[in-house]
Write a structure and sequence with these properties.
By secondary structure, this protein is mainly alpha-helical. The chain is built from eight helices and nine strands. The chain has four domains: 1-70, no CATH class; 80-198, no CATH class; 202-244, no CATH class; 250-279, no CATH class. The N and C termini lie far apart (108 Å).
């Protein structure tokens, strides 16, 4: 019951109904018995069948009847990529159920490993674009002279266009998701190495003699940490790195320069007279 006294579904916040709610994420995962899975790799399409059955045994959730609007696929064992292609082609009316199963508009098998359907359709699209085929804003397929195309050529272009378009969008989505994950990892890594930096051990000259900052991390490279070895027992996965203090380095450089100047004469000018010229 909510604050207004209305009976609601605790999981969704929607008005309560007599519909059963189940959160499948709280259900132990069901698996095919071990002996069957052991021999599956030695049977043609064995692992595909095992994965398909286990997915059927373990629906995802949570969901209610209101949310259960998933597509029913006419082909068993589709990957997520193939399901996306299936949806894209079906939305264009490019799939047909015939005597030998569901085929695309040009008679291709969407999941045939031998046909390399997706790759071939992208190649087909590129070939037809090079030949001058295109699609206008109204969805008409045009040839290189701007004439509206019909028949098989039209069907072939729409099918290959649909597959190419879906594949490019999927790649863009994957790249965006990968970048988002990488950015999040980089941020977390920087925070971890910053904490490690706070525990650096320094000598009297300000040099960092012992640190767990990973020199391969963004922060480690930026701040000049070097050396050390991988260590799975530290938060950064590294230990034994070090870093010379900049002011200490400059001091050392100036001392080395002074020594060099002295050896060459410098203010004393030993090689060019110096004290010897007074005597």
């Amino acid at each position: 019951m909510n604050e207004d006294g209305d009976l609601v579904n605790a999981a969704t916040g929607k008005p309560a109904t007599n519909e059963f709610y189940k959160d499948y994420t709280l259900t132990p995962r069901k698996e095919i018995p071990g002996p069957i899975k052991m021999f599956a790799p030695f049977v043609p399409f064995g692992m595909t069948t095992v994965n398909y059955l286990e997915n059927k045994m373990n629906p995802t959730g949570p969901f209610t009847a209101d949310d259960n609007n998933t597509t029913s696929y006419g082909i068993a064992g589709l990957t997520n990529q193939q399901k996306g292609l299936y949806d894209a082609l079906a939305s264009q009316g490019m799939l047909y159920d015939g005597p030998s199963g569901i085929k695309t508009a040009t008679g291709k098998n969407l999941v045939s490993l031998a046909d390399n359907y997706e790759e071939n359709q992208i190649d087909k699209y590129n070939e037809m674009v090079e030949e001058g085929y295109s699609m206008d804003d109204d969805g008409n397929v045009l040839d290189k002279d701007g004439n509206i195309v019909s028949g098989y050529k039209k069907t072939a272009f729409i099918e290959s266009f649909t597959v190419n378009n879906y594949t490019q969008q999927a790649k863009e989505k994957t790249r965006a998701e990968t970048k988002e994950i990488q950015d999040r990892v980089n941020t977390q890594e920087t925070v971890i190495n910053q904490r490690a930096k706070d525990k650096d051990v320094k000598d009297g000259k300000g040099n960092i003699t012992s640190s767990t900052v990973n020199p391969n991390s963004e922060l480690g490279k930026k701040e000049g940490y070097t050396g050390g070895n991988p260590n799975p027992h530290t938060d950064t996965g590294w230990s034994g790195s070090s870093k010379a203090d900049k002011s200490s380095e400059k001091n050392q450089e100036s001392q080395e320069t002074a020594a060099y100047d002295f050896a060459k004469g410098g203010r004393v000018g030993y090689f060019y007279g110096g004290l010897a010229s007074i005597l």
